[in-house]
């Protein structure tokens, strides 16, 4: 186990009906002018928008709106939010939505007190040293952004998708009300499942040794997602399945709680970001396609971890099989699960062809080789993307 | 799963050598006068005391000392600390030690801004509404007090041992340096192992349904403690075993992270507190004796959980056995493990006889029946204590 610092100050309010605690929580922060950040309008169809507005009015808060945050949130939208905050003296950025909405809210919050352009943070040209307070009402179990300091933002003009992570970007509180996810469409539920599993796997496939607790915590989340994912797809308003998925998504990526002292890999995320920076596909679609191929490309570097993954997470019977066979069976089980729940397995399924791959590979390694399980150069990335065609 | 609120703002600095980060962390809090709380002097023998003093001097902090905190920390000591803080305008309470030292520090910190006597909080006559900042350097893996808001304090004059828990009592930061535990005597290492396992089991044996992730998180800690406990006893300076135990102890009881939305039991703790309120035995000695007897007394109320415990935690082979047999085998495995590492199994081993049991049973239910897995009245407590003789 490596040395580490862990600090996660986000307060979580979890459970059916918790969305009605919003007003009180905002009042406790003493906020007076709220930037309400949301997406394409599903919160209006479900009535959540009205519930939020009503509570904010009840506590006498003034509301400024930033609607229309995109699934891959754009820096242009973030800049619009920053200007609104400055013009209207906003003192709380409230995200009501899924990971994209929350990420956009975080970028707005860190951008407001910074004199330069917010994109500097994404290019690592500047360090985040302050932020407006952030709060969230989560409507989609997926990214874990509700309990961490990270965000992913896209610049469509340059086809760049980049991330930042900062202690200043942890939400003050996040409301996790599983009933809000009952109406999430099947394809977004699928994407959420792939996303949270990928987050755990990025941490789990590590070269750090002597981390027995962390490995088990990762396996616990994976097993629970696998069991509950299909239940939620079969019965979208299944209270336990939705609650379990929501908790798993949050714990999967809440500041590294499950993998403290382990060096995660994250190469698959880096590769996927290049795909969805050029093609406007869902992040999780790219992950579903690339992750099993990354596994096949690297598993021999630490076959014991892949064997353990196969046996403990997928219940592969080890008896009579070689390590190689067990590891490959675990990778195959991952691919089959993704396929079974309806996630894509080939870039060509999404009409992505060979022609963009070299550019993606070059851009993926812009800051140097990616990944820690195995460091990947442009050639490696290209090979994995070609396996994914 | 029940609804819940989770908020754990304690910052953790974990790893070999982290004790040397103390000065910088205190400086970041802006503290000027530090109450240094410690126990019987082992930190002087190991050199940790000098390391702490040197760092506090380097940042120009003034130091006031509260030495001699007892293994079952006494309210008289806490009162002495409160007076020191008031007289010397202390602005940080720094615990350097194990759970008892940290608990005493917390009680001092919450007592300072309160006009009445600190014991009021233990009797639930008053609510904690403020505290001095608290920080810790942990020297013993056991109680989890380094990352939660709870404390247990004893009044020897009245033979009362009581607890409080408050959001104000979370440490601002805790330094977890596993190398500091290499010199912990074997019996205290044993006590730590029993303590952390008991904390997890109090949460795990719950009547709350549909908590698959939480159950697995609990099992993960138990399995890891079981594996690493014996390693640390065989080789006290085993770096990985000590690091794994330290992480397990902290995660076992850090504000309920592993059991969010589950109602824990805690009857065994309540019963044990009555034993060690009268006899000055280590808390974990009492837990080791009572816990398996509590299990035997209640397991039929939810045999599936005890079956799962036996199979997943202890690797009991279920094939060809009844649920009853599997559950009992898990309870037996727990008893045998405690015995194997050298923890006591009978009150009579500690020279505790029948005569005090009725009084303990009455005092245990002073605020009403105890436990949530099964509510226990005085008769139940007496029966379990008699099983423990």
What secondary-structure arrangement, pairings included, does this model have?
Two copies of one chain form a homodimer.
Chain A: E1 4-6, E2 11-14, H1 22-29, E3 33-37, H2 42-45, H3 48-58, E4 62-66, H4 75-88, E5 92-97, H5 99-111, H6 119-122, E6 134-138, E7 150-155, E8 160-165, E9 173-176, H7 186-204, H8 212-234, H9 239-252, H10 267-278, H11 283-298, H12 303-314, H13 323-340, H14 357-364, H15 378-387
Parallel strand pairs in A: 2-9, 3-4, 3-5, 5-6, 6-9
Antiparallel strand pairs in A: 7-8
Helix pairs in contact in A: 1-3, 4-5, 7-8, 7-9, 7-11, 8-9, 8-12, 10-11, 10-14, 11-13, 12-13, 14-15
Could you explain the architecture of this structure?
2 copies of one chain form a homodimer. With 389 residues, chain A is α/β, with parallel strands linked by helices. Chain A has 2 domains: 11-180, 3-Layer(aba) Sandwich (Rossmann fold), CATH 3.40.50; 184-387, Dehydroquinate synthase-like, alpha domain. Helices cover 48% and strands 11% of the residues of chain A. Chain A has 15 helices and 9 strands. Chain A has helices spanning 22-29, 42-45, 48-58, 75-88, 99-111, 119-122, 186-204, 212-234, 239-252, 267-278, 283-298, 303-314, 323-340, 357-364, 378-387, and strands spanning 4-6, 11-14, 33-37, 62-66, 92-97, 134-138, 150-155, 160-165, 173-176. In chain A, a hairpin with a 4-residue loop joins strand 7 and strand 8 (160-165). In chain A, helix 7 runs parallel beside helix 11 (283-298), helix 8 packs antiparallel against helix 9 (239-252) and helix 14 (357-364) packs across helix 15. The relative contact order of chain A is 0.11. The model of chain A has no long low-confidence stretch (mean pLDDT 97). The A-B interface holds A 1-18, 210, 212-213, 216-217, 219-221, 223-224, 227-228, 240, 243-244, 247-248, 251, 257, 260-261 and B 1-18, 210, 212-213, 216-217, 219-221, 223-224, 227-228, 240, 243-244, 247-248, 251, 257, 260-261. Strand 2 of chain A pairs antiparallel with strand 1 (4-6) of chain B, so a sheet runs across the interface.
């Amino acid at each position: 186990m490596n040395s580490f610092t862990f600090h996660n100050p986000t307060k979580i309010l979890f459970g059916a009906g918790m969305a009605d605690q919003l007003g009180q929580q905002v009042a406790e922060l003493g906020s007076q002018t709220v930037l309400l950040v949301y997406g394409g309008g599903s919160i209006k169809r479900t009535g959540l928008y009205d519930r939020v507005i009503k509570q904010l009015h009840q506590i006498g808060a003034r509301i400024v709106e930033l609607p229309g945050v995109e699934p891959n949130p754009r820096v242009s939208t973030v800049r619009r939010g920053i200007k609104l905050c400055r013009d209207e003296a906003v003192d709380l950025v409230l995200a009501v939505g899924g990971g994209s909405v929350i990420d956009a809210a975080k970028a707005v919050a860190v951008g407001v007190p910074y004199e330069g352009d917010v994109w500097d943070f994404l290019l690592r040209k500047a360090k985040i040293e302050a932020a407006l307070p952030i709060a969230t009402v989560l409507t989609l179990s997926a990214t874990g952004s509700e309990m961490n300091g990270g965000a992913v933002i896209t610049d469509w003009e340059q086809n760049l998708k980049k991330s930042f992570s900062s202690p200043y970007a942890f939400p003050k509180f996040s409301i996790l009300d599983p009933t809000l996810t009952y109406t999430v469409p099947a394809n977004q539920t699928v994407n959420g499942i792939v996303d949270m599993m990928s987050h755990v796997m990025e941490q789990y496939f590590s070269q750090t040794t002597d981390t027995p607790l962390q490995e088990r915590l990762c396996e616990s989340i994976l097993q629970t997602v696998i069991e509950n994912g299909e239940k939620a797809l079969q019965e979208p308003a299944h209270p336990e399945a939705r609650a379990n998925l929501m908790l798993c998504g949050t714990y999967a990526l809440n500041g590294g709680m499950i993998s403290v002292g382990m060096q995660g890999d994250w190469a698959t995320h880096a590769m996927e970001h290049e795909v969805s920076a050029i093609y406007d596909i869902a992040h999780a679609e790219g992950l579903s396609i690339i992750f099993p191929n990354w596994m096949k490309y690297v598993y021999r570097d630490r076959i014991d971890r892949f064997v353990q993954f196969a046996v403990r997470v997928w219940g592969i019977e080890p008896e009579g099989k070689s390590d190689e066979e067990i590891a490959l069976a675990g990778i195959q089980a991952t691919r089959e699960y993704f396929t079974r729940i309806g996630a894509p397995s080939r870039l060509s399924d999404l009409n992505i062809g060979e022609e963009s791959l070299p550019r993606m590979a070059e851009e993926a390694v812009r800051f140097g080789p990616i990944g820690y399980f195995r460091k990947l150069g442009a050639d490696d990335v290209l090979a994995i993307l070609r396996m994914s065609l």
